[in-house]
Design a protein that fits this description.
single chain; globular; four-stranded antiparallel beta sheet; 13% helix; 1 helix; two-stranded antiparallel sheet
Length: 119
């Protein structure tokens, strides 16, 4: 994943927390005076219309690669600043979520994603 994408994903977590509101804000990040340039970017609304599986985010995690994982009331979503890829419970698939209500997300020291589900 490109470094610029990874740096902007922290801002996307705020957008996802505000899924119910209208987006479109312009944000400028100020950096320290040690020579790092300021960065400007635009943010927009991310919700079910953009591929998020549900409008209510219950848990958000940015992994070591830079993906933003969003647990919702209906599935797990992986966001890379361009698109949301949803993952749903599939009974016979042991590598998928154990349920569709994703309460908690954690990443262990080996980079494995741990998912707490309900139902």
């Amino acid at each position: 994943m490109k470094a610029g994408i990874r740096k902007s994903l922290a801002a996307w977590s705020l957008i996802l927390l505000l899924v119910g509101s209208e987006g479109g804000a312009k944000v400028t990040l100020s950096r320290s005076p040690e020579g790092v340039e300021a960065t400007a970017f635009s943010v927009s609304h991310v919700g079910p219309g953009q591929g998020l599986s549900h409008s209510q985010a219950l848990s958000i995690l940015q992994d070591r690669v830079g993906f933003l994982w969003v647990g919702t009331r209906f599935g797990l979503n992986r966001f890379d600043a361009y698109e949301c890829v949803p993952f749903f419970h599939d009974g016979p698939n042991p590598k998928g979520p154990g349920g569709n209500v994703i309460w908690r997300l954690m990443e262990d020291s080996q980079g494995r994603l741990w998912i707490a589900t309900w139902g």
